[in-house]
Amino acid sequence: MFRIPIGDFVETVIDWLTENLSVFFDAIKSILESIVQGFEFVFTLIPFFITIPILALIAWRVSGKGTAAFTVIGMLLIKSIGLWSNTMSTLALVFTSTFIAIVVGLPIGIWMSRSNTVDKVVRPILDFMQTMPAFVYLIPAVYFFDLGKVPGAVATVIFAMPPIVRLTNLGIRQVPEDVIEASRSFGSTAGQLLYKVQIPLAKPTILAGLNQTIMLSLSMVVISSMIGSGGLGDVVLKGITQMKVGLGFEGGLAVVILAMILDRITQGFGKNTSKSRK
User: Would you say 216 and 163 are in contact if contact means Cβ atoms under 8 Å apart?
Assistant: First the structure.
């Protein structure tokens, strides 16, 4: 059977982009590097005995005493096994990736909700982004941005952005039609309808998308340690390559604790938003 050289075509496109758009990719690299370093500087600058109470207070306010207690115990455990700086590095990368995913994904989700044509075009792209093996994203990221935290952030954004796009689209589309008609009858413009009616009512669904984006970011950050993104993923990778079971377990445990804390906090925001609507 005739072979279709899809891989050769992709390599040709990647090579062309690398050679002709190097200035563009260097600019993106500088911006992303500044954002990651900014988050990392803030997280590492604040001492652990201040960071932990702040996280615990946030957890208590949005998710209750149980989550606050788990946050304190979990973060103290991370500090006690000597992985605090790695955790803050991972948290910086997750925050950067989530921030970019929100900035890019929210407008796309809103656009999809307002146009069935855009929805039909973007949906297969999101399917492709979510189902493509995560390791594949590392290859073009390294081509364009070399090794380090930036290609890790780029690969993480691509892998983790679909949920926020999908659920923003879904949340806005699920706003009851009678509410929309009532708003229009009172003279709401398209912008007022979107920002004062549809987005507030869709906020629980959008926050669920944010929760999934954060979880996917954490999983991808660990994978991206293979291209030098550092953080807890680097600890897990060392455990694998050096056959150090204990070290790998400690790194994995820190990832689980961080994931559970972020998950409970973002879920708490979503539940509080739902209660306020009622």
Answer: yes
| Fold for the domain defined by 6-277 | MetI-like fold (1.10.3720)
> What residue ranges do the domains of the chain occupy?
6-277
Tokens of 120: 């039909």
Separation CA 162–CA 123 (nearest Å): 9
> Using 50, 70 and 90 to split pLDDT, how confident is the model at 1?
low
For residues 76-114, one letter each, b for 16 or more C-beta atoms within 10 angstroms of the residue's C-beta and e for the rest, the string is eebbebebbebbbbbbbbbbbbbebbbeebbebbbebbe
pTM of the complete model beyond 0.90 = no
* Tokens describing residue 16: 């062309």
CA distances from 237 to 1, 217, 233, 256 (A): 41, 17, 6, 15
